[in-house]
Amino acid sequence: MKKAETAGISVLLSAITTLTYMYTLANRNRLLTHTLSIDPNPTKQLNIFFISDIHRRTISPRLIDELRTRAIDAVIVGGDVAEKGVPMERILHNMRLLSSVGPLFYIFGNNDKEVGRKNILQVMDEVGATVLVDSTATVPNHPRFGLCGLQDRNNGTVDINKAIDSASGYEYLILAVHNPSLFKKVEKQLQPKLSLAGHTHGGQIRFGPWGLQDLGCFQITKYGAKLISNGYGTTKLPLRLGAKPECHVVEVRY
């Protein structure tokens, strides 16, 4: 065999190995736990599950089994449960699984419109989810907490004033958006104890420190904490590199 042929085979095998790794990584189930204390002497705990950017993935029953051991008070879906070509049956299946974990809250992402806003609303209605469109709902069993959700601007005008007005009267606020760029528009007025977002996929495919978006992170802020997730699924290509998929349990102690 000629050297050129050998080199070509080596390159092909290396490419296949890399693509297999990227596909396997993209389909991992990675559940991260974060802790936030908002009282120096907490006596209660609120457990929130946050997942965003499911896109084409089917949620793993093993993930659901793990969550059922966590006493989840609220399941927050941070948008993009679908994209063009995802069958409604898969979306409904995923939302049924999530609603079996705890009360389900949903905000629109930018890709959800590709399967139709009406279709998404029908699914959410069928599973008993609360859809937050620039509005606030009380967190079940934790009446001191309001959950304020802003839809993605690709689904319509974001009414910032409406969202702020709806959040009045709560001692503590949780802010959920799809695109973290919305944080800066409302954080100063709402001063949420916890801010949640997805959308960026952590760059999805990164080369070392370089990517189209920053990696997701959980960080303490002057108001409380902020979580930007790498997301659960992928878009365009079912591949990841350097940006692991993730979903989250946030334990809020107060």
Core attributes:
single chain, 254 residues, alpha/beta, Purple Acid Phosphatase, chain A, domain 2, 6-stranded mixed β-sheet, globular
Strand and helix map with partners:
Layout (H helix, E strand, L loop, with lengths): L2 H24 L4 E7 L7 E7 L9 H7 L6 E4 L10 H12 L4 E3 L10 H10 L3 E2 L3 E5 L2 E9 L9 H7 L5 E6 L5 H8 L3 E4 L19 E4 L4 E4 L18 E7 L1
Parallel strand pairs: 1-12, 2-3, 3-4, 4-5, 7-8, 8-9, 9-11
Antiparallel strand pairs: 2-12, 6-7, 10-11
Helix pairs in contact: 3-4
Concise overview:
This protein has 254 residues and is an alpha/beta fold. Helix content is 27%, strand content 24%.
Task: Walk me through what this model shows.
The protein has 254 residues and is an alpha/beta fold. The chain has a single domain, classed as Purple Acid Phosphatase, chain A, domain 2 (4-Layer Sandwich), CATH 3.60.21. It is built from 6 helices and 12 strands. A 6-stranded mixed β-sheet has the order 1-12-2-3-4-5, covered by helices on one side. The model has no long low-confidence stretch (mean pLDDT 95).
